[in-house]
Design brief:
globular; 2 helices; 19% helix; 2,3-Dihydroxybiphenyl 1,2-Dioxygenase, domain 1; five-stranded mixed beta sheet; 118 residues; Signal recognition particle alu RNA binding heterodimer, srp9/1; four-stranded mixed beta sheet; alpha+beta; 9 strands
């Protein structure tokens, strides 16, 4: 029986990525060991842990088949601007499809994620 899902993200600068994702998600540091940093959701919020794993290689240049979707309130542009101030890069204009809208972003190391409203 499944008890939990953790999301793992490879990165080159694990501490810089931890600082970005803590600020982006509102998560807190939840432990570290060697080349790993764990981030967890705030108390009372259900969500996966984000495990950052330091690796020597850069992100692949091809589209990655799995990514994070950050679901926000109605102000998608405001959230995109906040994430850009933290070091994220906007990769697309707003896409509206199937009663959902999203904007493709990349974290400071180029890992793609989407900011979404539903």
């Amino acid at each position: 029986m499944l008890s939990r899902v953790d999301v793992n993200l490879d990165c080159r600068d694990v501490d810089a990525q931890a600082a970005f994702w803590v600020a982006a998600l509102g998560y807190s540091p939840a432990g570290s060991a060697d080349q790993y940093r764990a981030l967890g959701p705030p108390d009372g919020v259900h969500g996966p842990k984000l495990i950052l794993q330091q690796v020597p290689e850069p992100p692949p240049s091809a589209k990655i088949r799995m990514h994070l979707d950050l679901i926000v309130g109605d102000d998608i542009e405001g959230e995109v601007a906040r994430l850009e101030e933290l070091g994220a890069v906007r990769r697309s204009e707003r896409i509206d499809e199937a009663e959902t809208a999203w904007i493709v972003m990349a974290d400071p190391e180029g890992n793609e994620f989407c900011v979404c409203v539903t």
